[in-house]
């Protein structure tokens, strides 16, 4: 077993990755989406501290901006502009520095979905850029991939909840059309839910993470595998080997091997 980021001893959680896993997915060539605003959409207005809070015209015009019918036909550029101007969750729109749209290969086979941006992600506008993101990068390296090729990374929420609290149900509901459109545009071969909050929101369940792991589930026709959030693995490195098993299960789903959706591996 190629473990890479999995340490031989629990206390060594920063071991460098090993060689790529034989048979890993051949990555595609990334083409970053345009940053131009959607036609007819107002530009975001910077506050004195540099936050991208939309102007009054944009806020009123986009009152139902994340309605599924309004989002389902957007291309990458328009979707990203719509997210940047979103004010559906007033508390999040006021407190954010940047929306965190997502990053990676728009034609990826693997799509990783986390919970919500943290402080560093909110500052930089990119998902998984702190210590948890560094561990995620080592997890990807163990699979022979990186976040720029063959992988797309997004979150349940596009804005950081104050004090890193859990996303509220109404916030996750408001953001869902954005994520669903990202999934539809990427068309991944497998979704990997990172952590309990992401898994429970995607699957609309209250089941604990331990009961969701270890099997290939289904999200609207796409195989979904649940694993631990990298931030949890930093606190509990002894569970890294379980997470590696989850990633191997996801790789089987990508390759069309192993258990059918819902079947224990």
What does this structure look like?
The chain has helices spanning about 55-60, 70, 75-85, 90-95, 120-125, 130-140, 170-185, 195-205, 210, 230-235, 240-255; strands spanning about 45, 50-55, 105, 110-115, 150-155, 190-195, 215-220, 220-225. With about 260 residues, the protein is α/β, with parallel strands linked by helices. The model is unreliable at about 5-65 and about 260-265 (pLDDT under 50). It is an enzyme of class 3 (hydrolase).
Key attributes of the depicted protein:
Uracil-DNA Glycosylase, subunit E, 265 residues, 35% helix, two-stranded antiparallel sheet, six-stranded mixed beta sheet, disordered C terminus, 11 helices, alpha/beta, 8 strands
What's this entry about, in short?
The protein has 11 helices and 8 strands.
SSE inventory with pairings:
Elements: E1 44-46, E2 52-54, H1 56-61, H2 68-71, H3 76-84, H4 90-95, E3 103-104, E4 110-114, H5 119-124, H6 131-142, E5 151-155, H7 169-186, E6 190-194, H8 196-203, H9 209-212, E7 217-219, E8 222-227, H10 230-235, H11 240-254
Parallel strand pairs: 4-5, 4-6, 6-8
Antiparallel strand pairs: 1-2, 3-5, 7-8
